[in-house]
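Revision sheet: C-alpha coordinates.
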Amino acid sequence: MRLRKWISSLWLFSLLLSTLAAGGHAFAANDISIVLDGRTLGADTSPYLVPKANLTMVPIRVISENLGASVDWSQQTRTVTIRRSGVVITMEQGQSSARVDGAVVKLGASASVRNSRIMVPLRFVSETLGLQVDWNAKTRIIALTTLGGTGTEGSVGTGGSDGSGGSSGSRPAELRGAWISTVYNLDWPSTASYGDPAKQEAEYDKLLDDLQAIGINAVFVQVRPMGDALYPSRLVPWSKYLTGTQGKDPGYDPLAFMVEETHKRGMRFEAWFNPFRAAAGSTTDGLAANHVAAEHPDWIVQAGATQYINPGIPAARQHVIDAIMEVVNGYDIDGVHLDDYFYPSGTAFADDAAYLQYNDGSFANKGDWRRDNVNRFVRDLGQAIHAAKPSVSFGISPFGVWRNQSADPTGSATKASVTSYDDMYADTRTWIRQGWIDYIAPQIYWSLSFSAARFDILAEWWGNEVKGTGVKLYVGHAPYKLGTTEAGWQSPQEIVNQLKYDADSGQVQGDIFFSAKDLLRDPLGLLPLLQTYYGV
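Predicted:
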Protein backbone atom coordinates (compact mmCIF):
# COMPACT_ATOMS: atom_id res chain seq x y z
CA MET A 1 0.00 0.00 0.00
CA ARG A 2 2.88 2.40 0.68
CA LEU A 3 4.08 1.68 -2.83
CA ARG A 4 0.85 3.17 -4.01
CA LYS A 5 1.44 6.27 -1.92
CA TRP A 6 4.92 6.83 -3.35
CA ILE A 7 3.84 6.16 -6.90
CA SER A 8 0.88 8.49 -6.47
CA SER A 9 3.08 11.35 -5.49
CA LEU A 10 5.52 10.55 -8.27
CA TRP A 11 2.72 10.43 -10.82
CA LEU A 12 1.31 13.68 -9.50
CA PHE A 13 4.61 15.42 -9.91
CA SER A 14 5.16 14.16 -13.45
CA LEU A 15 1.68 14.98 -14.68
CA LEU A 16 1.82 18.48 -13.34
CA LEU A 17 5.11 19.31 -14.99
CA SER A 18 4.18 17.78 -18.34
CA THR A 19 0.90 19.60 -18.61
CA LEU A 20 2.44 22.93 -17.86
CA ALA A 21 5.13 22.46 -20.47
CA ALA A 22 2.68 21.31 -23.12
CA GLY A 23 -0.02 23.85 -22.47
CA GLY A 24 1.98 27.02 -22.27
CA HIS A 25 1.68 27.11 -18.48
CA ALA A 26 4.37 24.56 -17.75
CA PHE A 27 7.39 25.38 -15.69
CA ALA A 28 10.82 24.93 -17.18
CA ALA A 29 12.44 21.57 -16.59
CA ASN A 30 14.98 23.04 -14.25
CA ASP A 31 12.31 24.83 -12.20
CA ILE A 32 11.33 21.76 -10.22
CA SER A 33 13.59 19.23 -8.54
CA ILE A 34 12.78 15.88 -6.94
CA VAL A 35 14.78 14.92 -3.87
CA LEU A 36 14.60 11.43 -2.31
CA ASP A 37 16.03 11.15 1.21
CA GLY A 38 18.26 14.14 0.55
CA ARG A 39 19.45 12.91 -2.88
CA THR A 40 18.44 14.79 -6.04
CA LEU A 41 16.90 12.48 -8.62
CA GLY A 42 17.54 12.77 -12.33
CA ALA A 43 15.11 11.94 -15.13
CA ASP A 44 15.48 11.60 -18.88
CA THR A 45 12.10 13.28 -19.32
CA SER A 46 11.21 16.31 -17.24
CA PRO A 47 8.36 16.05 -14.75
CA TYR A 48 5.39 18.27 -15.46
CA LEU A 49 2.52 19.84 -13.56
CA VAL A 50 -1.21 19.52 -14.12
CA PRO A 51 -2.46 22.72 -12.47
CA LYS A 52 -6.20 22.04 -12.47
CA ALA A 53 -5.73 18.60 -10.93
CA ASN A 54 -2.89 19.81 -8.69
CA LEU A 55 -0.88 16.78 -9.80
CA THR A 56 2.71 16.15 -10.81
CA MET A 57 3.66 13.51 -13.36
CA VAL A 58 7.03 11.76 -13.51
CA PRO A 59 8.52 9.03 -15.72
CA ILE A 60 8.18 5.50 -14.33
CA ARG A 61 11.94 5.09 -14.68
CA VAL A 62 12.27 7.27 -11.59
CA ILE A 63 10.34 4.64 -9.70
CA SER A 64 12.17 1.59 -11.00
CA GLU A 65 15.66 3.03 -10.63
CA ASN A 66 15.25 4.77 -7.29
CA LEU A 67 12.75 2.65 -5.38
CA GLY A 68 13.67 -0.80 -6.56
CA ALA A 69 10.20 -1.43 -7.94
CA SER A 70 9.48 -3.71 -10.88
CA VAL A 71 7.76 -1.74 -13.64
CA ASP A 72 6.15 -3.25 -16.75
CA TRP A 73 4.41 -1.52 -19.64
CA SER A 74 2.00 -3.36 -21.92
CA GLN A 75 1.83 -1.65 -25.29
CA GLN A 76 -1.14 -3.80 -26.23
CA THR A 77 -3.34 -2.85 -23.27
CA ARG A 78 -1.65 0.53 -22.61
CA THR A 79 -1.26 -0.53 -18.97
CA VAL A 80 1.59 0.06 -16.54
CA THR A 81 2.08 -2.46 -13.71
CA ILE A 82 4.24 -1.67 -10.69
CA ARG A 83 5.26 -4.35 -8.19
CA ARG A 84 7.12 -3.92 -4.94
CA SER A 85 7.14 -5.85 -1.66
CA GLY A 86 3.94 -7.70 -2.47
CA VAL A 87 2.05 -4.58 -3.58
CA VAL A 88 0.73 -4.51 -7.15
CA ILE A 89 -0.45 -1.30 -8.82
CA THR A 90 -1.94 -1.20 -12.29
CA MET A 91 -2.83 1.94 -14.24
CA GLU A 92 -4.27 2.08 -17.75
CA GLN A 93 -3.62 5.05 -19.96
CA GLY A 94 -6.62 7.36 -20.12
CA GLN A 95 -8.46 5.73 -17.23
CA SER A 96 -9.58 7.70 -14.16
CA SER A 97 -8.90 4.85 -11.73
CA ALA A 98 -6.13 2.45 -10.81
CA ARG A 99 -6.03 -0.90 -9.07
CA VAL A 100 -4.00 -1.50 -5.93
CA ASP A 101 -3.88 -5.17 -4.93
CA GLY A 102 -7.06 -5.59 -6.94
CA ALA A 103 -8.98 -2.76 -5.28
CA VAL A 104 -10.20 0.09 -7.48
CA VAL A 105 -8.89 3.54 -6.50
CA LYS A 106 -9.90 6.83 -8.12
CA LEU A 107 -7.19 8.96 -9.71
CA GLY A 108 -6.86 12.66 -10.35
CA ALA A 109 -5.00 11.93 -13.60
CA SER A 110 -4.27 8.76 -15.54
CA ALA A 111 -1.01 7.31 -16.81
CA SER A 112 0.20 9.03 -19.96
CA VAL A 113 2.94 8.90 -22.57
CA ARG A 114 5.23 11.90 -23.08
CA ASN A 115 8.35 11.96 -25.25
CA SER A 116 7.99 8.17 -25.57
CA ARG A 117 8.16 7.87 -21.77
CA ILE A 118 5.43 6.50 -19.52
CA MET A 119 4.41 9.11 -16.95
CA VAL A 120 2.60 8.43 -13.68
CA PRO A 121 1.24 10.66 -10.85
CA LEU A 122 3.84 11.28 -8.16
CA ARG A 123 1.65 11.72 -5.07
CA PHE A 124 -0.50 8.67 -5.74
CA VAL A 125 2.55 6.47 -6.25
CA SER A 126 4.39 7.92 -3.26
CA GLU A 127 1.48 7.53 -0.85
CA THR A 128 0.96 3.95 -1.97
CA LEU A 129 4.60 3.20 -1.24
CA GLY A 130 4.44 4.98 2.09
CA LEU A 131 6.75 7.85 1.25
CA GLN A 132 6.40 11.34 2.63
CA VAL A 133 5.85 13.97 -0.06
CA ASP A 134 6.59 17.63 0.68
CA TRP A 135 6.29 20.45 -1.86
CA ASN A 136 8.14 23.69 -1.26
CA ALA A 137 6.56 26.29 -3.53
CA LYS A 138 9.32 28.82 -2.86
CA THR A 139 12.25 26.58 -3.79
CA ARG A 140 10.21 24.44 -6.21
CA ILE A 141 11.53 21.25 -4.65
CA ILE A 142 9.52 18.08 -4.08
CA ALA A 143 11.06 16.15 -1.19
CA LEU A 144 10.36 12.43 -0.88
CA THR A 145 11.24 10.65 2.34
CA THR A 146 11.11 6.88 2.79
CA LEU A 147 9.84 5.18 5.92
CA GLY A 148 12.67 4.52 8.30
CA GLY A 149 14.99 6.70 6.20
CA THR A 150 17.14 9.50 7.54
CA GLY A 151 15.22 11.88 5.30
CA THR A 152 14.46 15.53 5.74
CA GLU A 153 12.05 17.30 8.03
CA GLY A 154 8.60 15.99 7.24
CA SER A 155 9.66 12.33 6.96
CA VAL A 156 7.16 9.66 7.74
CA GLY A 157 9.16 8.23 10.59
CA THR A 158 9.78 4.65 11.60
CA GLY A 159 7.93 1.84 10.00
CA GLY A 160 8.41 -1.29 7.88
CA SER A 161 12.02 -1.75 6.83
CA ASP A 162 11.12 -2.41 3.20
CA GLY A 163 8.98 0.71 2.87
CA SER A 164 5.99 -1.29 1.70
CA GLY A 165 3.66 -0.02 4.35
CA GLY A 166 4.03 -2.74 6.91
CA SER A 167 6.57 -5.08 8.40
CA SER A 168 6.35 -8.83 8.16
CA GLY A 169 4.10 -10.00 10.96
CA SER A 170 2.25 -6.70 11.38
CA ARG A 171 -1.47 -7.29 11.86
CA PRO A 172 -4.54 -5.04 11.87
CA ALA A 173 -5.46 -3.68 15.27
CA GLU A 174 -7.54 -5.86 17.57
CA LEU A 175 -10.27 -3.24 17.95
CA ARG A 176 -11.67 -1.69 14.76
CA GLY A 177 -14.32 0.82 15.72
CA ALA A 178 -16.56 3.55 14.38
CA TRP A 179 -18.12 6.48 16.19
CA ILE A 180 -21.88 6.74 15.68
CA SER A 181 -22.98 10.33 16.32
CA THR A 182 -26.57 10.99 17.31
CA VAL A 183 -26.22 14.73 17.95
CA TYR A 184 -28.00 16.64 15.16
CA ASN A 185 -28.90 13.17 13.79
CA LEU A 186 -25.51 13.02 12.11
CA ASP A 187 -25.18 9.22 11.84
CA TRP A 188 -28.30 7.78 13.45
CA PRO A 189 -31.27 8.00 13.65
CA SER A 190 -32.45 9.98 10.63
CA THR A 191 -34.86 12.86 11.09
CA ALA A 192 -37.21 10.93 8.80
CA SER A 193 -37.48 8.26 11.50
CA TYR A 194 -38.78 10.57 14.25
CA GLY A 195 -41.54 8.81 16.17
CA ASP A 196 -41.08 5.58 14.20
CA PRO A 197 -39.32 2.91 16.32
CA ALA A 198 -39.43 0.31 13.56
CA LYS A 199 -37.67 2.63 11.11
CA GLN A 200 -35.04 3.58 13.67
CA GLU A 201 -34.37 -0.07 14.44
CA ALA A 202 -34.09 -0.92 10.75
CA GLU A 203 -31.67 1.97 10.20
CA TYR A 204 -29.48 0.84 13.07
CA ASP A 205 -29.47 -2.78 11.87
CA LYS A 206 -28.36 -1.68 8.41
CA LEU A 207 -25.70 0.57 9.89
CA LEU A 208 -24.25 -2.34 11.85
CA ASP A 209 -24.36 -4.68 8.87
CA ASP A 210 -22.65 -2.16 6.60
CA LEU A 211 -19.93 -1.45 9.17
CA GLN A 212 -19.30 -5.10 9.87
CA ALA A 213 -19.01 -5.77 6.13
CA ILE A 214 -15.92 -3.54 5.96
CA GLY A 215 -14.25 -5.04 9.02
CA ILE A 216 -15.57 -2.91 11.89
CA ASN A 217 -16.02 -4.92 15.11
CA ALA A 218 -16.91 -2.20 17.63
CA VAL A 219 -19.25 0.77 17.73
CA PHE A 220 -19.03 3.84 19.96
CA VAL A 221 -22.62 5.10 20.09
CA GLN A 222 -23.43 8.55 21.41
CA VAL A 223 -26.08 7.93 24.08
CA ARG A 224 -25.80 11.35 25.77
CA PRO A 225 -25.54 14.04 23.06
CA MET A 226 -26.51 17.17 25.05
CA GLY A 227 -27.43 16.58 28.68
CA ASP A 228 -30.11 14.13 27.51
CA ALA A 229 -30.46 10.39 26.95
CA LEU A 230 -31.20 7.72 24.36
CA TYR A 231 -32.56 5.56 27.17
CA PRO A 232 -35.19 5.99 29.90
CA SER A 233 -33.56 7.95 32.72
CA ARG A 234 -34.54 9.19 36.15
CA LEU A 235 -32.09 12.08 35.86
CA VAL A 236 -32.12 13.46 32.34
CA PRO A 237 -34.77 13.82 29.60
CA TRP A 238 -35.26 11.78 26.46
CA SER A 239 -33.12 13.14 23.62
CA LYS A 240 -34.86 15.22 21.00
CA TYR A 241 -32.86 13.38 18.35
CA LEU A 242 -35.27 10.46 18.74
CA THR A 243 -38.57 12.26 18.19
CA GLY A 244 -37.79 15.89 17.39
CA THR A 245 -38.94 16.94 20.87
CA GLN A 246 -36.80 16.72 23.96
CA GLY A 247 -38.45 14.75 26.76
CA LYS A 248 -40.83 12.85 24.47
CA ASP A 249 -40.90 9.07 24.93
CA PRO A 250 -39.91 7.39 21.63
CA GLY A 251 -42.01 4.33 22.42
CA TYR A 252 -39.12 1.92 23.01
CA ASP A 253 -35.71 1.69 24.67
CA PRO A 254 -33.19 2.51 21.93
CA LEU A 255 -30.16 1.70 24.06
CA ALA A 256 -31.43 -1.75 25.02
CA PHE A 257 -32.18 -2.47 21.37
CA MET A 258 -28.78 -1.25 20.16
CA VAL A 259 -26.83 -3.23 22.75
CA GLU A 260 -28.72 -6.41 21.89
CA GLU A 261 -28.34 -6.03 18.13
CA THR A 262 -24.66 -5.15 18.41
CA HIS A 263 -23.91 -8.18 20.56
CA LYS A 264 -25.91 -10.45 18.24
CA ARG A 265 -23.32 -9.68 15.58
CA GLY A 266 -20.40 -10.35 17.90
CA MET A 267 -19.51 -6.66 17.97
CA ARG A 268 -18.47 -4.52 20.91
CA PHE A 269 -20.76 -1.75 22.22
CA GLU A 270 -19.23 1.30 23.87
CA ALA A 271 -21.67 3.86 25.31
CA TRP A 272 -20.38 7.29 24.32
CA PHE A 273 -21.20 10.26 26.59
CA ASN A 274 -20.66 13.98 26.09
CA PRO A 275 -20.12 14.76 29.78
CA PHE A 276 -20.45 18.55 30.07
CA ARG A 277 -22.09 19.82 26.88
CA ALA A 278 -25.60 20.78 27.99
CA ALA A 279 -27.46 22.45 25.13
CA ALA A 280 -27.16 24.42 21.93
CA GLY A 281 -28.24 28.05 21.95
CA SER A 282 -28.46 30.50 24.81
CA THR A 283 -31.95 29.89 26.21
CA THR A 284 -33.95 27.03 27.68
CA ASP A 285 -36.48 27.17 24.86
CA GLY A 286 -37.20 23.67 23.65
CA LEU A 287 -35.60 22.03 26.68
CA ALA A 288 -37.56 19.60 28.84
CA ALA A 289 -38.45 20.67 32.36
CA ASN A 290 -36.04 18.14 33.84
CA HIS A 291 -33.09 19.17 31.68
CA VAL A 292 -30.09 20.25 33.75
CA ALA A 293 -30.13 23.78 32.27
CA ALA A 294 -33.71 24.22 33.42
CA GLU A 295 -33.34 22.61 36.83
CA HIS A 296 -29.89 23.99 37.70
CA PRO A 297 -29.25 27.21 35.78
CA ASP A 298 -26.54 28.05 38.32
CA TRP A 299 -24.53 25.09 36.99
CA ILE A 300 -24.58 26.37 33.41
CA VAL A 301 -21.99 28.52 31.66
CA GLN A 302 -22.70 30.04 28.27
CA ALA A 303 -19.63 29.62 26.08
CA GLY A 304 -20.10 30.89 22.56
CA ALA A 305 -23.24 29.35 21.11
CA THR A 306 -23.26 26.40 23.53
CA GLN A 307 -24.30 25.92 27.14
CA TYR A 308 -21.96 23.85 29.29
CA ILE A 309 -22.27 22.23 32.68
CA ASN A 310 -19.57 23.84 34.83
CA PRO A 311 -16.96 21.18 35.74
CA GLY A 312 -15.83 23.40 38.64
CA ILE A 313 -19.00 22.71 40.66
CA PRO A 314 -18.72 19.41 42.58
CA ALA A 315 -22.48 18.76 42.58
CA ALA A 316 -22.59 19.27 38.81
CA ARG A 317 -19.78 16.79 38.26
CA GLN A 318 -21.58 14.26 40.45
CA HIS A 319 -24.78 14.75 38.48
CA VAL A 320 -22.97 13.73 35.29
CA ILE A 321 -21.40 10.72 37.00
CA ASP A 322 -24.80 9.60 38.32
CA ALA A 323 -26.32 9.85 34.84
CA ILE A 324 -23.52 7.72 33.37
CA MET A 325 -23.80 5.15 36.14
CA GLU A 326 -27.48 4.64 35.26
CA VAL A 327 -26.25 3.11 32.03
CA VAL A 328 -23.41 1.16 33.62
CA ASN A 329 -25.78 -0.44 36.13
CA GLY A 330 -28.75 -0.87 33.82
CA TYR A 331 -27.30 -2.14 30.54
CA ASP A 332 -24.92 -4.80 29.27
CA ILE A 333 -22.50 -2.33 27.71
CA ASP A 334 -18.86 -3.19 27.10
CA GLY A 335 -17.47 0.21 27.91
CA VAL A 336 -18.01 3.84 28.87
CA HIS A 337 -16.52 6.28 26.40
CA LEU A 338 -16.07 10.05 26.80
CA ASP A 339 -15.04 12.54 24.15
CA ASP A 340 -13.14 15.81 24.60
CA TYR A 341 -16.00 18.01 25.83
CA PHE A 342 -14.57 19.12 29.16
CA TYR A 343 -13.82 22.84 28.96
CA PRO A 344 -14.41 24.40 25.52
CA SER A 345 -11.47 25.83 23.60
CA GLY A 346 -11.32 29.10 21.71
CA THR A 347 -14.02 30.87 23.69
CA ALA A 348 -14.46 32.57 27.06
CA PHE A 349 -15.74 30.45 29.93
CA ALA A 350 -17.18 32.55 32.76
CA ASP A 351 -16.36 30.52 35.86
CA ASP A 352 -14.83 33.20 38.13
CA ALA A 353 -17.52 32.69 40.77
CA ALA A 354 -16.95 28.95 40.94
CA TYR A 355 -13.18 29.50 41.07
CA LEU A 356 -13.56 31.78 44.07
CA GLN A 357 -16.01 29.46 45.80
CA TYR A 358 -14.42 26.06 45.20
CA ASN A 359 -10.70 26.77 45.00
CA ASP A 360 -9.52 25.89 48.51
CA GLY A 361 -6.29 27.79 48.03
CA SER A 362 -4.41 24.85 46.51
CA PHE A 363 -4.23 26.49 43.09
CA ALA A 364 -2.58 29.78 42.24
CA ASN A 365 -4.12 29.96 38.78
CA LYS A 366 -7.39 29.02 37.18
CA GLY A 367 -5.80 26.71 34.61
CA ASP A 368 -4.46 24.30 37.23
CA TRP A 369 -7.77 24.48 39.09
CA ARG A 370 -9.71 23.59 35.94
CA ARG A 371 -7.43 20.65 35.23
CA ASP A 372 -7.95 19.44 38.78
CA ASN A 373 -11.71 19.63 38.32
CA VAL A 374 -11.50 17.40 35.26
CA ASN A 375 -9.04 15.09 37.01
CA ARG A 376 -11.40 14.64 39.93
CA PHE A 377 -14.25 13.88 37.55
CA VAL A 378 -12.23 11.29 35.62
CA ARG A 379 -10.92 9.69 38.81
CA ASP A 380 -14.32 9.50 40.50
CA LEU A 381 -16.10 8.19 37.41
CA GLY A 382 -13.45 5.55 36.81
CA GLN A 383 -13.65 4.38 40.40
CA ALA A 384 -17.44 4.20 40.23
CA ILE A 385 -17.42 2.18 36.99
CA HIS A 386 -14.79 -0.27 38.15
CA ALA A 387 -16.48 -0.76 41.52
CA ALA A 388 -19.88 -1.46 39.94
CA LYS A 389 -18.75 -3.56 36.98
CA PRO A 390 -15.04 -4.36 36.74
CA SER A 391 -15.59 -5.89 33.30
CA VAL A 392 -16.76 -2.56 31.82
CA SER A 393 -13.89 -0.58 30.31
CA PHE A 394 -13.52 3.17 30.71
CA GLY A 395 -11.83 5.27 28.07
CA ILE A 396 -11.56 8.83 26.83
CA SER A 397 -10.92 10.28 23.38
CA PRO A 398 -9.07 13.59 23.81
CA PHE A 399 -7.91 16.08 21.22
CA GLY A 400 -4.85 14.63 19.47
CA VAL A 401 -2.17 16.99 20.82
CA TRP A 402 -1.45 17.02 24.57
CA ARG A 403 1.14 19.83 24.50
CA ASN A 404 3.63 21.16 21.98
CA GLN A 405 7.33 20.91 22.78
CA SER A 406 7.46 24.70 22.69
CA ALA A 407 5.28 24.73 25.83
CA ASP A 408 6.66 21.57 27.46
CA PRO A 409 9.85 19.72 26.44
CA THR A 410 8.07 16.42 27.08
CA GLY A 411 5.31 17.31 24.63
CA SER A 412 5.13 16.34 20.96
CA ALA A 413 7.16 17.86 18.13
CA THR A 414 4.11 19.66 16.81
CA LYS A 415 2.91 23.21 16.28
CA ALA A 416 -0.77 22.80 17.08
CA SER A 417 -2.73 25.98 17.73
CA VAL A 418 -4.87 24.14 20.30
CA THR A 419 -3.77 21.53 22.84
CA SER A 420 -5.83 19.40 25.17
CA TYR A 421 -3.79 20.31 28.28
CA ASP A 422 -3.73 24.08 27.80
CA ASP A 423 -7.05 24.73 26.06
CA MET A 424 -9.42 21.96 27.18
CA TYR A 425 -7.75 21.42 30.56
CA ALA A 426 -7.51 17.69 29.94
CA ASP A 427 -4.49 16.31 31.80
CA THR A 428 -4.37 13.02 29.94
CA ARG A 429 -0.90 12.15 31.22
CA THR A 430 -2.19 12.07 34.79
CA TRP A 431 -5.18 9.90 33.84
CA ILE A 432 -2.85 7.38 32.20
CA ARG A 433 -0.21 7.31 34.93
CA GLN A 434 -2.78 7.06 37.71
CA GLY A 435 -4.57 4.19 35.95
CA TRP A 436 -7.95 5.92 36.17
CA ILE A 437 -8.80 4.88 32.61
CA ASP A 438 -8.48 1.59 30.72
CA TYR A 439 -7.72 3.12 27.34
CA ILE A 440 -6.96 6.43 25.70
CA ALA A 441 -8.13 7.16 22.14
CA PRO A 442 -6.57 10.43 20.92
CA GLN A 443 -8.16 12.03 17.88
CA ILE A 444 -5.15 12.15 15.56
CA TYR A 445 -7.02 13.77 12.72
CA TRP A 446 -4.02 14.83 10.62
CA SER A 447 -2.15 13.16 7.80
CA LEU A 448 1.35 11.76 7.57
CA SER A 449 2.33 14.89 5.63
CA PHE A 450 0.71 17.63 7.73
CA SER A 451 3.79 19.43 9.00
CA ALA A 452 2.23 21.16 12.02
CA ALA A 453 0.92 17.93 13.53
CA ARG A 454 2.08 14.84 11.68
CA PHE A 455 0.17 11.64 12.32
CA ASP A 456 3.24 9.46 12.87
CA ILE A 457 4.84 11.91 15.30
CA LEU A 458 1.68 11.99 17.40
CA ALA A 459 1.03 8.25 17.25
CA GLU A 460 4.57 7.62 18.46
CA TRP A 461 4.21 10.22 21.22
CA TRP A 462 1.00 8.66 22.52
CA GLY A 463 2.58 5.22 22.27
CA ASN A 464 5.35 6.36 24.59
CA GLU A 465 2.78 7.79 27.00
CA VAL A 466 1.03 4.44 27.52
CA LYS A 467 4.13 2.26 27.35
CA GLY A 468 4.43 0.19 30.52
CA THR A 469 1.24 1.59 32.10
CA GLY A 470 -1.31 -1.10 31.23
CA VAL A 471 -3.51 1.55 29.58
CA LYS A 472 -4.42 0.63 26.01
CA LEU A 473 -3.92 3.01 23.11
CA TYR A 474 -6.61 3.30 20.45
CA VAL A 475 -6.17 5.88 17.68
CA GLY A 476 -8.93 8.04 16.22
CA HIS A 477 -8.78 8.40 12.42
CA ALA A 478 -10.44 10.98 10.16
CA PRO A 479 -11.92 9.52 6.96
CA TYR A 480 -14.14 12.60 6.84
CA LYS A 481 -11.09 14.58 5.67
CA LEU A 482 -10.50 12.47 2.56
CA GLY A 483 -10.97 14.56 -0.55
CA THR A 484 -10.37 17.86 1.24
CA THR A 485 -7.57 20.26 0.36
CA GLU A 486 -5.68 19.74 3.63
CA ALA A 487 -2.26 18.19 3.09
CA GLY A 488 -2.26 14.43 2.68
CA TRP A 489 -5.96 13.73 2.22
CA GLN A 490 -6.09 13.44 -1.57
CA SER A 491 -5.77 9.63 -1.61
CA PRO A 492 -7.64 6.96 0.39
CA GLN A 493 -4.31 5.24 0.89
CA GLU A 494 -3.60 7.82 3.59
CA ILE A 495 -5.96 5.98 5.95
CA VAL A 496 -4.49 2.56 5.16
CA ASN A 497 -0.96 3.87 5.64
CA GLN A 498 -1.99 5.21 9.03
CA LEU A 499 -3.47 1.84 9.98
CA LYS A 500 -0.27 0.11 8.94
CA TYR A 501 1.76 2.57 10.96
CA ASP A 502 -0.44 1.76 13.96
CA ALA A 503 0.07 -1.97 13.44
CA ASP A 504 3.83 -1.61 13.09
CA SER A 505 4.14 0.59 16.18
CA GLY A 506 3.69 -2.22 18.67
CA GLN A 507 1.67 0.10 20.93
CA VAL A 508 -1.63 0.80 19.15
CA GLN A 509 -4.28 -1.80 19.97
CA GLY A 510 -7.27 -0.23 18.28
CA ASP A 511 -8.40 2.08 15.49
CA ILE A 512 -11.60 4.16 15.55
CA PHE A 513 -13.06 6.08 12.60
CA PHE A 514 -14.99 9.32 12.76
CA SER A 515 -17.63 8.87 11.84
CA ALA A 516 -19.83 6.02 10.60
CA LYS A 517 -21.50 8.04 7.84
CA ASP A 518 -18.18 9.43 6.60
CA LEU A 519 -16.74 5.94 6.48
CA LEU A 520 -19.70 4.39 4.68
CA ARG A 521 -19.93 7.07 1.99
CA ASP A 522 -16.73 5.46 0.65
CA PRO A 523 -14.61 8.61 0.34
CA LEU A 524 -12.27 8.39 -2.66
CA GLY A 525 -12.87 4.63 -2.85
CA LEU A 526 -11.62 3.85 0.68
CA LEU A 527 -13.88 0.90 1.48
CA PRO A 528 -12.34 -1.70 -0.87
CA LEU A 529 -8.94 -0.82 0.55
CA LEU A 530 -10.21 -1.30 4.11
CA GLN A 531 -11.79 -4.61 3.22
CA THR A 532 -8.52 -5.79 1.72
CA TYR A 533 -6.54 -4.57 4.70
CA TYR A 534 -8.88 -6.16 7.24
CA GLY A 535 -9.26 -9.31 5.17
CA VAL A 536 -13.06 -9.25 4.83
